[in-house]
C-alpha cells in the first residue's frame, strides 16, 4: 500500500456555474450559457446543485468527511453583471458569506477567477479574441484580490485549452465555431497574456497569498512507432500541452513549439501574429507562478490523419461514439484494450505519472503542483440512499498511486481536488454524468454520501491509499 505526505491536501472541486444554480438570482448578470442551453433544450444550469443556497450543508459535509479544501470559482457576472462597471454588492456579499462558512468549517477556499463563464456582454463582444476583454478580466481579478482578502489561493483561469478548443475547434461550447485554428490559437495566447497580467498585478501589489493557473493537461502518445504517428502525437501535444506550459513557465513559445503550431496553422491555411509586447508581461510572470493546477482525466493515442476535420463528441454516455480527427494534427484513436468511461474517456493513471515527471524535467521552475481536477463521470446507481460506486474508487486508487509514485520520484505535488465535491451540472452532458463524492437528488437537493466519500475520508485521515 502506498502513502501520501502528511500535509497533502485532500480537496473537492466545484465551479460556480455548475454548482450554484440561481442563475438569475442575487443580481447576477447573464452568461452565454444561459441562452445557449435553453436553445439546445436538453437541460439548463437550473437548479444545478443549488450551492447558492446549500453551501452551508456542503461545507458541513466537507468538515465531516475530512475534505480540507473546496475548489470553487467566483461568477464574474455576480460581481460585475455586465463584465465591468457597476459592482453588484449582493454578489460580493454572497461570496463573503461563503468564505465565512468555509472558515467556520475549517475548509480552505481555493478560488478560480474564471471558469468558463464570461459575462454575456463581453462574450458577445468576442470573449478573449477581443483584447479589450483582457482589460476587463484583469480589472475583475484585481477587484477580487482587493475585496476577498479571506482567500489565500487564487487561480486565474480554469482550462485555457478547453475554452479555446471547445469554443473554436470542436464547437462543443458556445459560440459553436468549428475548426477555426486561427481563433483557437489567438484565444489561447490572449488568455495566457491575461493570466500573466493578473499574476504581475498580484505580485506587484504584494497581495497576501498564492497565485497560479489551472491547465487541463492530457498526455499524447503515438498510436504506433511509425514516424508519421510520432509526428501527429507531437503536433497534438504542442497545441494542447507545450504551448500553454511554455507560456506559463518560459513566458514565450520555444522554437520547437512554434514550428509545430505554424505547421498546424499552415495545414489549415491560416497564420497568427503575436504582439511582441505581450512577451514582456509573460516573461515577468513566468517566474512568479506559485503553483500549477493540473486537471487530468484521460490520455490520448494519436495517429497520422490527412483528411478534413471531423468530430463526434460523446455527450450522452453512449460508449464508443467519440470521433476526433483534426486536419493538420491527427486522429485520436480508440483503444479497445484500455478501460474507458461511458463517455469514452480512457482511464490511464500512468498518463498522470508521465505528465508529472515530464513537468519536473522540462519546466524546473514549476514550483509546486496541485491536481485541481480528476475523477470519474459515472451513471451512479441510487438504491434507498446507498450509492456503491466501486468503479470510481478503483479509478481514484489508480490515480492516487500515480501521484504517490511521482512524489517519490521528486515531483512536488501538494494536494488533490476530486472532481467533483458533490454531483454538479456538466456543461455538455447535463445531469446523468455524475462525478461527486456526494450524490445530489436534483429534485429535493438532498445530499447522500457515496461509498467513495467514505473511502476518501479514510485516505484523508490516514494518508494511506487503501
Ligand atoms: C473540466 C472542467 C469542469 C468539469 C470537468 C468534467 O474540463 O473544468 O468544469 O466539467 O471537466 O467534464 P464533463 O462535465 O464534460 O464531464
From TrEMBL:
Pathway: Carbohydrate metabolism; lactose degradation; D-galactose 6-phosphate and beta-D-glucose from lactose 6-phosphate: step 1/1
Catalyzed reactions per annotation: a 6-phospho-beta-D-galactoside + H2O = D-galactose 6-phosphate + an alcohol
GO terms of biological process kind: lactose catabolic process via tagatose-6-phosphate
A Pfam family assignment: Glyco_hydro_1
InterPro entries per the UniProt record, alphabetical: 6P-beta-galactosidase (IPR005928), GH (IPR017853), GH_1_N_CS (IPR033132), Glyco_hydro_1 (IPR001360), Glyco_hydro_1_AS (IPR018120)
EC number(s) from the headed UniProt entry: 3.2.1.85
Gene Ontology MF: a single term: beta-glucosidase activity
List of catalytic residues: 373
EC supergroup of this enzyme: hydrolase
Hydrolase among keywords: yes
Any Gene Ontology CC annotation: cytosol
Bilayer-crossing regions: none
Keywords annotated in UniProt: Glycosidase, Hydrolase
Gene3D superfamilies, A to Z: Glycosidases
PANTHER family reported in the protein's UniProt record: GLYCOSYL HYDROLASE (PTHR10353), LP05116P (PTHR10353:SF36)
UniProt record similarity statement: Belongs to the glycosyl hydrolase 1 family.
Name of the molecule in the record: 6-phospho-beta-galactosidase
Organism field: Marinilactibacillus psychrotolerans
Designated gene of the protein: lacG
Amino acid at each position: 500500500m502506498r502513502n501520501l505526505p502528511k500535509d497533502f491536501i485532500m480537496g473537492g472541486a466545484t465551479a460556480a456555474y455548475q454548482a450554484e444554480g440561481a442563475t438569475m438570482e442575487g443580481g447576477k448578470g447573464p452568461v452565454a450559457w444561459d441562452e445557449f442551453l435553453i436553445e439546445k433544450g436538453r437541460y439548463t444550469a437550473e437548479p444545478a446543485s443549488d450551492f447558492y443556497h446549500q453551501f452551508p450543508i456542503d461545507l458541513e459535509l466537507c468538515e465531516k468527511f475530512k475534505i480540507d479544501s473546496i475548489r470553487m470559482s467566483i461568477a464574474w457576472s455576480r460581481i460585475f453583471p455586465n463584465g465591468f462597471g457597476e459592482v453588484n454588492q449582493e454578489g460580493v456579499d454572497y461570496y463573503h458569506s461563503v468564505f465565512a462558512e468555509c472558515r467556520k468549517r475549517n475548509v480552505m477556499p481555493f478560488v478560480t477567477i474564471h471558469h468558463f463563464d464570461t459575462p454575456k456582454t463581453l462574450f458577445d463582444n468576442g470573449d478573449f479574441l477581443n483584447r479589450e476583454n483582457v482589460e476587463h478580466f484583469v480589472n475583475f481579478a484585481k477587484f477580487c484580490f482587493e475585496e476577498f482578502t479571506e482567500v489565500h489561493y487564487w487561480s486565474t483561469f480554469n482550462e485555457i485549452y478547453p475554452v479555446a478548443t471547445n469554443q473554436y475547434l470542436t464547437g462543443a461550447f458556445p459560440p459553436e465555431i468549428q475548426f477555426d485554428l486561427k481563433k483557437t490559437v489567438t484565444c489561447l495566447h490572449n488568455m495566457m497574456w491575461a493570466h500573466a497580467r493578473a499574476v504581475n498585478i498580484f505580485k506587484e501589489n504584494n497581495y497576501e497569498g498564492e497565485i497560479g493557473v489551472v491547465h487541463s493537461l492530457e498526455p499524447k502518445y503515438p498510436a504506433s512507432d511509425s514516424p508519421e504517428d510520432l509526428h501527429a502525437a507531437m503536433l497534438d501535444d504542442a497545441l494542447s500541452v507545450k504551448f500553454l506550459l511554455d507560456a506559463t513557465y518560459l513566458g514565450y513559445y520555444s522554437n520547437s513549439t512554434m514550428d509545430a503550431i505554424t505547421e498546424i496553422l499552415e495545414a489549415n491555411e491560416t497564420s497568427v501574429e503575436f504582439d511582441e509586447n505581450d512577451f514582456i508581461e509573460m516573461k515577468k510572470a513566468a517566474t512568479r507562478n506559485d503553483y500549477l493546477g493540473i486537471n487530468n482525466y484521460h490520455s490520448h493515442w494519436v495517429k497520422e490523419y490527412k483528411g478534413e476535420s471531423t468530430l463526434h463528441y460523446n455527450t450522452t454516455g453512449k460508449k464508443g461514439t467519440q470521433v476526433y480527427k483534426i486536419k493538420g494534427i491527427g486522429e485520436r484513436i480508440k483503444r479497445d484494450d484500455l478501460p474507458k468511461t461511458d463517455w469514452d474517456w480512457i482511464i490511464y493513471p500512468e498518463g498522470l505519472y508521465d505528465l508529472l515527471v515530464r513537468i519536473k524535467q522540462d519546466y524546473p521552475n514549476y514550483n509546486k503542483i496541485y491536481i485541481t481536477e480528476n475523477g470519474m463521470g459515472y451513471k451512479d446507481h441510487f438504491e434507498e440512499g446507498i450509492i456503491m460506486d466501486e468503479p470510481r474508487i478503483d479509478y481514484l486508487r489508480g490515480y492516487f498511486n500515480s501521484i504517490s509514485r511521482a512524489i517519490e520520484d521528486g515531483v512536488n505535488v501538494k494536494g488533490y481536488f476530486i472532481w467533483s465535491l458533490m454531483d454538479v451540472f456538466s456543461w455538455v452532458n447535463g445531469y446523468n454524468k455524475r462525478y461527486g463524492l456526494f450524490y445530489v437528488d436534483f429534485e429535493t437537493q438532498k445530499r447522500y454520501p457515496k461509498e467513495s466519500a467514505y473511502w476518501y475520508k479514510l485516505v484523508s485521515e490516514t494518508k494511506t491509499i487503501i
